[in-house]
Structure formats: C-alpha cells, structure tokens
Write a structure and sequence with these properties.
Blueprint: H1 3-47, H2 64-67, H3 86-90, E1 101-107, E2 117-120, E3 140-146
Length: 148
Amino acid sequence: MNRRPRTALTVLAVMCVVAAAACAGIWHYHDDMGRYLVRRAIANAAATPQPPAATESDYPTLPLESALTHAPAQPLATFPLTERTWGDRFNPGGNLPDTGYTAWYFDSDDPATAAVPENSDTIAFNDEYGQRHPIPAVSLGAYWAGKL
C-alpha cells in the first residue's frame, strides 16, 4: 500500500475530528456566547450616551435672545411708592405679634374679600392637600407681619 494516500486520509480524518469538536464546542457554548455578546452590546450602548430625541412642539418658539433680555439694575428709590400697601389693607394698626408672625391668606383674584389672620411660627406655607384654605393654589396670596 502506498504511504501517501494513508497520510492524506489521516490528515482528512484529523481535520474532520477537529471540525466536529469545534462545532460541538460552539453548539455547547452558543448560549453563553450569545449572552456575552448581548451584555457587551448593552454595556457599549450605555457607555456612549445618545442625544435626546428631538420633539416637535405645537407652541411657537421664540429666539433665545428674546428670552435673555436683561433690564439694567436700578436703585429702589427710582420706583414709585404705592399709595396703599397690603399692610394698610390687612394690618392697618401695624400690630406685630410678640413671637412668630401673623399671616393673612387671601384670593389674589379677589383681594377685596376678607382674609382671616392666623398665627404662624415661620414665613412659610404648606397646604399640600388644600384643606386649610378654600383658595385655589394659582390665586393664593399671602401677607405676613412680624419681627425678623
């Protein structure tokens, strides 16, 4: 028997065994490799932030310059004094409490209606559920009088 054909058959057989082993390995580990590739793709996507998607608005847009107009600062003395202050309206006697503040809450859409005074420890208002005053939040006005 000639030695060459046997060598060629042996090489062919070894190549088939190696190919079969490689296919078996790929088949066995294809789930792990797939998970690895997906995790790597997600990590790469998270590492490179995407610009926000452009949204279209129904509202007309104004040039940025019109929103950034600055009036020059003026001293307080340049503004005219009012003829009647909130203090004249709610606290005409100028009475101040010994501690804390007196607060008047009123409807700014109808400030002529009576505002009931109440004592307050701080100049703050928290009426999250609208149970203290029947005034809508968008038109709630407040006036505090006290010593700082």
